[in-house]
Amino acid sequence: MIGSVAWLLGMDAPHAVGLAAVAIALAGSLALVGEQSEVAWSAPDPVSRPGSRRDVAQLGWSVAVGARGLRGGRASSDAVRRLRGLAAEALALRGIGLDDPDSREAVAGLLGEETAALLRRGSGETPSTAAFVAALARIEALGSAVDRGGG
Question: What is the percentage of the chain residues whose pLDDT exceeds 70?
Answer without folding.
Answer: 68
